[in-house]
Amino acid sequence: MLSQVSICRCVCAGSKRLSPLFHNFLTDVMHFSVPCKFWSVAHTGAGKDDHENKSLLFEIPKMIRDIRPRQVCIEQVDGLVVLTKHRSYFKTLIRRIHSIGYTVAWKVFNLAEYGLPAQRRRLIIFASAPGEPLPRFPTPTHGPNTLQPFVTVRQALQDIAKSDKHNQHSQAIPPNQAFRADPDKPLHATLICGRRMTIKRGQKSLTLCQPNGREFTIRHLARFQTFPGLCFKRLRYRDC
């Protein structure tokens, strides 16, 4: 199985070979979601794959230039635009897409406003080829001034039984280290690869946990990402 880094290297090295494959086709829409780790607000230290992850972002304008899709959508964590240290990269990306004649619009979304049971902010960039209208950004569907209320932690986890085998392996977090999720609000945390999430409170890092004080299980975190329960039907605990 190819790792994320292997895929990054293949794309960075092979975009010139990939693009000609599309020359005989009219491409209506291209979507890009390159690895987000380097750009994330949760990425606070240097990683061994940072160079590959960073380089891949700038393969996007090259592929747009060669393939010439009518519409482009790019998804990325909001750190690319809100973190000062990354803002120059964002401006370079937009400038390069502009330079090949595309009209660009961008916006940061809170996906809790679209039914996700977690406060998850994502940067969405739309780019349209010359003569093509820019798509409209979608209107929020959940929240105080919309048709539907936010989806809460309680609603997201309500059908996961306390007797679930994954739940039985979750550990209790010491009270002085725990930050209990509010069951009646969307999860307020950045979901990361791993089971434990931390929240800064002053100088102290607390572990975000279930309202009952136990750590979130992999099944819980998958539910916050809106993976269906069917994904776990045949998994054993050690697989998770």
TrEMBL record:
SUPFAM superfamilies: S-adenosyl-L-methionine-dependent methyltransferases. This is DNA (cytosine-5-)-methyltransferase. One of its GO terms (molecular function) is DNA (cytosine-5-)-methyltransferase activity. It is an enzyme of class 2 (transferase). Gene3D superfamilies: Vaccinia Virus protein VP39 (3.40.50.150). GO terms for biological process: methylation; negative regulation of gene expression via chromosomal CpG island methylation. Belongs to the class I-like SAM-binding methyltransferase superfamily. C5-methyltransferase family. Keywords: Methyltransferase, S-adenosyl-L-methionine, Transferase. InterPro entries: C5-Methyltransferase, C5_MeTfrase, SAM-dependent_MTases_sf. GO terms for cellular component: nucleus. The active site is at 36. Its EC number is 2.1.1.37.
